[in-house]
Amino acid sequence: MRVICNREKLREALAVVNTVVPSKSTKPVLENICLVATDDSLEVLGTDLESSVRFRIEGVQVEEPGPAVIPARVALDFVRDLSGDEVKLHTQDNKCVIESGADTCDLVTMDPEEFPVVSRFGNEKSFSIQGGNFTRLVGRVSFAAAREGGRYAMHGVLCEIENGSLKLVATDGRRLALAAQPIEEGSALNKPAIVPTKGLQLFTRVIQDPLEQVAVHVTENQIGLKTKSAEIFSRLIDGEFPRYAAVIPRDASNTMEADAETLIRKLRLVANVTGVEARAVKLKLSPGNLDFFGQSVGRGEARAAMEVDFKGSQAEIAFNPDYVLEGLKNCETGLVRLSFNERSSPGKFTLGENYVYIVMPITVDS
User: What is the pLDDT of residue 219?
Assistant: First the structure.
């Protein structure tokens, strides 16, 4: 292999592919990336066997096609710190030489035959969505997916198409986020798919132009996304996702609308006094008013209040403030709506069009 390419384009490709390459692996070859030079392009491949990336650099001067498997992190660090605009790469013996001006690095190579096969986007039926909309959709829900032990399926995000919209759902059993985005009619997704959170976040990482239409296809065991320069794949999670529809309140006897920024500020203010052993803030609602109360042993207590539009009789409910704040920071409108029935029933936060966030309440002493 012998190629000449733009340094910034190479740095960008290496940075994206490194997001999927493990720093340590029982299979040393996975700590490497595979460069493949063909015609006038250079492909950069990386995988951890769960997710994989195929990033294509166009406009490369290929003097000699071929592959090279080199250490992923070292290659990125060296290319990032180069000052020249152009980079030359060539293989000789058991090494790959990276040159830019007077700067040179010789990297030990591995046998390309040992590198795992990375999927390629085929002719499978896919649906398209604007890149910026897909990124926003993932950001709306991914934070609510489980991070700790529990049902394996909850460590991913449920993706399904319903009524002409792509719907994403994530839950950790204590809160749930659901968001939908209309997509082109006739889009195909044979059945709901559970995608690892890491895989979806990797997808958003490679979307550079928010106006670009990206293609998504789902097979029996993996999901793929294709942009102008990259193809990304992630294995699906095999499991049963919780029946989330039963958790979402359909009707509510208490409904509050409040300014989102003020609600965030007041909630954070009172949450400061709560401790790990009693991470709860009580909300007391009455016509036109919302009172906040929090306390913990050894710290004291705090109160705050704000004006709200409230429909219902006097009511109260308590939440873990961290869960509520994590959802509110994604609020897409100036107003947030909270709906619930009783102090022991789930709270439904409406954070935007086709975007709801459900938080289970906490029982605290009166």
Answer: 86
